[in-house]
């Protein structure tokens, strides 16, 4: 053995370095499913959030046999209203001019009428006055409709006899909110015009002065 090997053997060896300890993050185990929680399937979220929408749709559905007459010379407006109303189970009658509209109204006596102001032949205001003079149609709720600015202005001046007005273009919620304001759940007008005095009732004597 050489002196170098002897020196190397007797040389103190460095102590091994202490192992560094790194903190380990604790990961929580996934919670077991709650037996009381309802199981959800694809599409359940829409069902949960669609509850009010379904209730609103059901509320808008018509009583079977509820009929609405649409009098408008625009095929686009007629088709739009007809589709909206039929989707909610209303029976829809259609007329494209005032004369035909008056004839259908007298013959069918609908539960409600959408009446355009600007019509060929008899305009909406003339048709409105005729409907209000007729005993068969005098209590039928009538919603005037128009996209014409001048006709809209005239409506607020000559609206005697109309129950409501709707400006074109209109939305589905607007259409049904107007209907529901005028017809109750049975399709009966909410505000039926009543005579000031029942026919045949005796007049009340005047109070003494």
Structural class determined from secondary elements: alpha/beta
Instruction: State the helical fraction.
Output: 25-40%
Poorly predicted segments: 30-56, 193-209
Determine the number of helices (DSSP H or I, runs of at least 4 residues).
8
Intertermini distance: 152 Å
Shape estimate: globular
| Arithmetic mean of pLDDT | 74
Characterize the biggest β-sheet.
5 strands, parallel
Give the strand content: 5-15%
Strand order of the largest sheet: 2-1-3-4-5
Q: State the name of the first-level CATH class of the domain at 61-182.
A: Alpha Beta
Give the strand tally.
Answer: 5
Provide the gyration radius in Å: 39 Å
**CATH homology-level superfamily of the domain at 61-182:** Response regulator
* Succession of helices and strands: HHHEHEHEHEHEH
